[in-house]
# Entry
Amino acid sequence: MQFGGLTAVSELALQVMPGEIIGLIGPNGAGKTTVFNMITGVYTPTRGKIYYKGQDITGMKPDRITSLGIARTFQNIRLFESMSVLENVMISKHVRLKACLAEAVLGLPRYTRSRQAQKEECIELLKKVELEDVINEPAVSLPYGKQRRLEIVRALATSPELLLLDEPAAGMNPNESIELMQFINRIRDEFDITVLMIEHHMEVIMGICERIYVLDYGMTLAQGNPEQIQNNEKVIEAYLGVVDLDA
Amino acid sequence: MSMDILLQNIANSITLGSLYALIAIGYTMVYGIIRLINFAHADLLMVAAYIAFYGIFLFTLPWWVAFLIAIALTALLGMSIEKIAYRPLRSSPRITVLISAIGVSFLLENLGIVAIGARPKPFPRPEQLVWNIHLGNISFLSLTIIIPIITLVLLAALIFLVKKTKMGMAMRAVSKDYETAGLMAVDVNKVISTTFAVGSSLAAIGGILWSMQYPQVDPLMGVFPGLKCFIAAVLGGIGSVPGAMLGGFVLGFLEIMLVAFFPHISGYRDAFAFIILILILLFRPGGILGENVIEKV
Amino acid sequence: MDDRLKTKFILNVVLLLAVALLIYWGQDNLNNFQIRILNLAGIFAILGVSLNLVLGFTGMFSLGHAGFMCIGAYTTAILTMSPRSKEIIYFMEPINPVLANIQWPVLPAIILGGIMAAVFGFLIGFPALRLRDDYLAIATLGFSEIIRIVVTNTITITNGALGLKNIPSIKSLWVYWLATILTILIIKRILNSSWGYAFKAIRDNEIAAEAMGINIFKHKLLSFTIGAFFAGLAGALMAHLITSVDPTMFRFLFTFQILLIVVMGGMGSISGSVVAALIVTIGMEVLRIVEQPMNLFGVLSIPGLPGMRMVIFSILLLLVILFYRQGLMGTREFNWDWLINKLSTFKLRKRGEAA
# Structure
């Protein structure tokens, strides 16, 4: 992927297996979010291919990729400001509505029923993640941690099989981070999904990821399970800088 | 088409192109620095032309004094508009600022109608500036030569300002990222004010030359030249001064030649510029000289 | 909760009946001039509400409304004028023979006016809606001007710059206000539907909306086309109100007035647009005074100031955008819940005071 003359991500062979929780780490500017943006179709990679369940999804529009079962959250929270918590989640269901606009305007039963069913589904979903008490609150009035969780729920409402989380623990204290870890583990099992997450909090990454990819200057620096990564010299170097023993 | 007429048309298109270029620079500078289509820019032409008009007829000033006063007052007006109508909205959504710009534009036009009346008035052509030149079979106004020369001189001065002076460097910094520029001790407000002053003076010069070339003034005289010059700026690559110049000449040339070669569709002349705009926005939104940037997510 | 729904339903019915009664009363008791102003206000309400759908709710800065009105107005004018008046009016160049002998009833012609505008909205939106913000604004403004210029030049169809006269006149308050109320109801229902939320999601955060599976382009095009339909409808109604059309009517100035209504009422508030439409239209008429010569006590005479109204409205727009950006209503709507809550707290307080 290139921006003008700048190569943001150059060599990356990322493979995700069903049901895994995978971490994507690396220093700032390593190109992690760019990887997400390429997978979800926000950017089209200048070279290279992206396959999802055997299908080439390179260059597809984001909404199409979402409909194939890949959902995401954003590093800087992107909730719909004018809407309540429930309305935010219901947006994800819009494409699955089984009626047309004319039916909605006329209030025909096919629309009303489909919409009502979606509403119930969303309330159910919000109950599962303990957000049911704020269903009608404006989304932006929620405390930060809950906004992050709402973003995850909103992504889940698109019924994904692969969920991409972009720094879900950003700005959280250790307690909240632990809670979040349990939450991610729980939704993985409950919704039977695969998770790929970018994170800077090492305790989160090491705590729940089965495999980790380390990205630096747009290249894969290392990959492996948490233990391997923790002991990988190149990774330590990239994060801590080189210690020259002769000096 | 005979050679003479072709030459005549080429001369016309260079004159029109120069005028477009001069006015387009103001759009491009303002857009480059605060990402705003300054709708009021078009009306500054009219304001300058009227000030010059009244300076000559009402106060019987020598033409060059009237012109200088017109340019200075228009620059001042441009700066005031920025201060009153755009600066308070700097952190608001772009739509909001644009609505404000449209409001200012309508205010100026209608103030013009109220104060002066909608009827066009003849604009004076000072003898020292405007005379007829005969060359073989073709005759043309001295303005045909003077306008491009003034435009080129001003362009050179402007490029010097932007590339070589401290203020120019500050302008370029602000146009890249005004928040960061502000942190680097650039006086952002001053830079933006200066940009408006320079852009508005160019609009004033353009307006006065325009009024001499097509010698009449009316309160809505700026509207169409304004829109077309914005189109010229987009065509050349908005934010780029040479781009605005190039866009102005290209648009002027295409417009004159379209009418010259296809007289039966001359009624569509004004639509033509918009068609160019839409094509360029769709196929090369960065314009001829601009870069096409990817929006960061 | 169910009780409240029932109350609201009853209140809505009462409101509609009250409006109907007002129209009924107005039709018999107002003079022609007043009726005309109210009808114009209705048309402006349609325009404001439809531009608000596009600008306030979907976040697309379109400045093309006047162009769509132009299409609607000309469609209905050409279809409803009598062959006899067409023969007289098209004297520069004779009318295209296909159109010469057509004479439709008014209602289908008005609706077709809307549909034609929607078709053009769709065709224009297709390329233009890839653009955003100011670029979209200038492109739609450009398309609107192109429409006007084409109309000026296709003389055998539109009679060019001379315009059309003797369009069948409609004077009834019922027609215009029924159209207005229907428009408001339809657009409100769209906005409260899943699609309305999709539009708002696009306005709030395009990238997030796309990531939630919403096809941005399709939805923008849908909103834009609906907006164009109602603008065309309003244009058609206007043709029958004024009974003549010409290309200069549909200059950017017209879009400016609609923009003023939307900004004043609040971008994102339907009720705001309706109220602002009434204020602006009636204000426009009231302010006519300032454009006429005045004679104060036979001593002081003030000459008429044509253009003064627009000066006042331009200043108004600037004041709203600079100091009171949310407009009259912000993104709020007039709603019964709010009123009922207010009333019940008022009642409680009263009771508290009495005790």
Summary: Residues 156 and 173 of chain B are 20 Å apart (CA to CA). The first strand of chain B starts at residue 121 and ends at 122. The radius of gyration of chain B is 19 Å. The mean pLDDT of chain B is 89.
